[in-house]
């Protein structure tokens, strides 16, 4: 049973920073679950949101792992019980409810049972990256999933394979039977290969697109641009084969080629609300409706042991370390790792 008050890292007068305050423990709605947070993870959207859409008193953070504390009255009976280990995602920095807190209330439909083989710290990386990877592969494109792997030779390019989302795109695509080509810094090639990448390329190599075209016989038709800014839209477009194809993108941009379709995904839509923060956007109902399918793919690959955690970097001092972790991401220092906080480390 949760107490009435808790510590949380909330938005404050200084844009881009958080402040640890004592606030009310959120109440779960009928279809929600209250989770006692053990570990939380940072995403680039956390620092972007609190810099671009400053508010005060909203709890920051989207990704969390912990134990079930209280179950909403309309959550299907038997789906969860108090004490279950779970991971999930919520909309951070927009409400007095978020991942950087001792308790978070989250939609039960997106809550993932966390296997014993995953620590809470590893589990905190699952929500945003895992769900966004599913949106890229199975909603924005209709690629074969681990639940029905293909035997056909299908190539997929993952540009930015060492990013948080890229690591799950590689794993899921590999489990779905695709041949995966991925880019990163050379120091992260062993990581990409351990996740299931078949061929790896340095994104800093100006000839990488030509090398990818050569490796795919000029027939590449599917790509996920996990970075979606600076030179990556051009490089991905150059890699796609002569007959054109489809690219899933994380930040909205226009296609560089008339024969290449660009499909933008947004993990926020899985939460089923119009967006006010960090930007105003009406709900994309189709992306929202895809949520249960993504939850099934992630739940089954977690349960059968095929989905593996990526590397993590634990920032000291729990909630008091959040500003340090967000600066680390903002400065582009995260390389093939997820930034994590242990709530119990908060002084
Ligand atoms: N639309 C959505 O729903 C959604 C969801 C999640 C994230 N995003 C956005 O997607 C972007 C990535 O987020 P994330 O959390 O996955 O990233 P992240 O883990 O913070 O990304 C860090 C990685 O990016 C790689 N990288 C940097 N520049 C690159 C380039 N030019 N080409 C290839 N790789 C490059 C680095 O590779 P090396 O270390 O190997 O050099 C590093 O490992 C952010 O802009 C984020 O806001 C959008």
TrEMBL record:
Gene Ontology terms for molecular function: oxidoreductase activity, acting on NAD(P)H
Domain Enoyl reductase (ER): 13-340
Transmembrane segments annotated in the record for this chain: none
Superkingdom, natural source: Eukaryota
Entry-linked InterPro entries: ADH-like_C (IPR013149), ADH-like_N (IPR013154), ER (IPR020843), GroES-like_sf (IPR011032), NAD(P)-bd_dom_sf (IPR036291), Trans-enoyl_RdTase-like (IPR047122)
SMART domains with a match to the protein in the record: PKS_ER
Any Pfam family matching the protein: ADH_zinc_N
CDD domains: enoyl_reductase_like
Name used for this protein in its record: Dehydrogenase
Organism field: Sanghuangporus baumii
């Amino acid at each position: 049973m949760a107490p009435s008050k808790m510590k949380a890292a909330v938005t404050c007068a200084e844009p881009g920073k958080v402040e640890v305050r004592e606030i009310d423990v959120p109440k779960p709605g009928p279809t929600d679950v209250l989770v006692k947070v053990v570990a939380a993870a940072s995403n680039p959207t956390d620092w972007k949101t609190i810099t671009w859409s400053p508010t005060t008193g909203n709890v920051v953070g989207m990704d969390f792992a912990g134990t079930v504390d209280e179950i909403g009255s309309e959550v299907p009976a038997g789906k969860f019980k108090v004490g279950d280990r779970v991971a999930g995602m919520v909309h951070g920095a927009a409400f007095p409810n978020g991942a950087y807190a001792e308790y978070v209330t989250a939609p039960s439909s997106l809550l993932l049972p966390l296997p014993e083989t995953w620590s809470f710290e590893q589990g905190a990386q699952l929500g945003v990256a895992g769900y966004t990877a599913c949106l890229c592969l199975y909603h924005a494109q209709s690629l074969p999933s681990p639940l029905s792997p293909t035997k056909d030779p299908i190539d997929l390019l993952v540009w930015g394979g060492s990013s948080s989302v890229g690591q799950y795109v590689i794993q899921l695509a590999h489990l779905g039977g695709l041949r995966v080509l991925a880019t990163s810094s050379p120091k992260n090639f062993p990581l990409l290969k351990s996740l299931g990448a078949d061929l790896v390329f340095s994104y800093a190599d100006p000839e990488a697109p030509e090398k990818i075209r050569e490796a795919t016989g000029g027939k590449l038709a599917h790509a996920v641009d996990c970075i979606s800014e600076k030179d990556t839209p051009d490089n991905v477009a150059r890699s796609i084969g002569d007959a054109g194809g489809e690219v899933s993108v994380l930040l909205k941009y226009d296609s560089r080629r008339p024969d290449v379709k660009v499909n933008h995904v947004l993990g926020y839509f899985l939460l089923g609300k119009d967006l006010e923060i960090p930007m105003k956007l009406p709900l994309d109902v189709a992306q929202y409706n895809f949520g249960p399918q993504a939850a099934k793919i992630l739940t089954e690959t977690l349960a059968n042991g095929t989905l593996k955690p990526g590397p993590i970097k634990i920032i000291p001092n729990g909630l008091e370390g959040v500003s340090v972790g967000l600066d680390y991401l903002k400065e582009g220092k995260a390389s093939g790792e997820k930034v994590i906080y242990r709530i119990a480390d908060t002084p």
